[in-house]
């Protein structure tokens, strides 16, 4: 899903607030992703994305979670979690926070 621009979205669902899977060259700006059971903002094998001024909130896991995601730029984002980690990167390199 290249060149996707998501701006000013507020999403509250049970599993993932915002989810990018094998997605590149996206701009996410001023979004809120809220999850009651998993991740607020979740990127899996997603590279060269720009996340700016987003909030990822989860009541049971990670606020913002990147897995095997390379070369992303995260600027002025907030990751909050009631029971785990706010912002968490796993097997993800060359990201700028």
Provide a descriptive summary of the structure in words.
The mean pLDDT is 87. The chain has no helices and twelve strands. It is mainly β and 97 residues long.
Short description:
The protein has strands at 5-7, 10-13, 16-21, 27-29, 32-35, 39-44, 50-52, 55-58, 64-67, 73-75, 78-81, 87-90. By secondary structure, it is mostly beta strands.
Uncertain spans: none
User: Termini distance?
Assistant: 23 Å
Radius of gyration: 12 Å
- Number of DSSP strand runs: 12
Strand content: over 45%
What order do the helices and strands follow?
EEEEEEEEEEEE
Oligomer: single chain
Helix content range: under 10%
Shape: globular
The largest pleated sheet is described as: 4 strands, parallel
- Structural class assignment: mainly beta
Number of helices: 0
Q: Overall pLDDT, averaged?
A: 87
The strand line-up of the biggest sheet is 1-4-7-10
What structural keywords apply?
97 residues, mainly beta
List the helices and strands and how they pair.
Blueprint (H helix, E strand, L loop, with lengths): L4 E3 L2 E4 L2 E6 L5 E3 L2 E4 L3 E6 L5 E3 L2 E4 L5 E4 L5 E3 L2 E4 L5 E4 L7
Parallel strand pairs: 1-4, 2-5, 3-6, 4-7, 5-8, 6-9, 7-10, 8-11, 9-12
């Amino acid at each position: 899903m290249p060149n996707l621009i998501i701006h000013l979205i507020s999403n509250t669902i049970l599993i993932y607030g915002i989810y990018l899977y094998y997605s590149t060259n996206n701009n996410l700006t001023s979004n809120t992703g809220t999850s009651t059971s998993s991740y607020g903002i979740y990127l899996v094998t997603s590279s060269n994305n720009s996340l700016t001024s987003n909030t990822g909130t989860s009541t049971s896991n990670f606020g913002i979670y990147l897995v095997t995601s390379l070369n992303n730029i995260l600027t002025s984002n907030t990751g909050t979690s009631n029971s785990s980690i706010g912002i968490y990167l796993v097997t993800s390199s060359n990201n700028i926070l």
